[in-house]
Amino acid sequence: MDFVKSNVLGFSTLLEFARRNDTRKLVHISTDEVYGSIDNGSFNEDSNLLPNSPYAATKASADLMARAYIKTYGIPIITTRSSNNFGPYQYPEKVIPLFITNILENRKIPLYGDGMNVRDWLYVEDNCAAIDLVSRKGRIYDTYNVGAKNEKTNLEIAKFILKEMGKDESYIEFVKDRPAHDRRYSLNCSKIGKLGFKPKNNFYNALKKTIQWYKDNKEWWKKIKGMKTYETKFY
Q: Which terminus of the chain has a smaller tally of CB atoms within 10 A, N or C?
């Protein structure tokens, strides 16, 4: 499985490199998916890791490997767990670029289940700023949640993109929900807020910029969608 190769074996290789070369600092990029789903409230950095999908389990495995290397070898690791990213150059099977590129191809957009799954959306530039901040001001061995307080249902996202691109809701195609599809992710980000982090990008303005980017860069994503290895397994 590719997730195991990259997130477990790949990260373990990086950890070994760091151990053998006296690395001064390693910032490990994780995800909010390691916490699993939450109906009410928000996860903080001390919440239990309860991943529900194979991908999330491999990311949680990487988090535990980071913990083990900290405890065993004292490797100076800082971990970030961010919410859903979006923006330019995102692989077109992910939800936002999938919706945008399908509409540009005059195709319907697939919406899992009832479309009411909730995600907190973080513009990629804000996540990059958070990673940079943590690398400079974060405390070694600590973990920081990174989010933007933009909790939206997939249906809300779909409707906004359709309206922005001049299409009606007949372009929505409800499809069978995927296995272990977490209902809601939500992060308490007060810890990184104390370092001075605050997202700069307004969600809807950033989404408009993202739509325009995919309009302007059709050659990039059409090449990917046309590859035989491209898997249209959605987001």
A: N
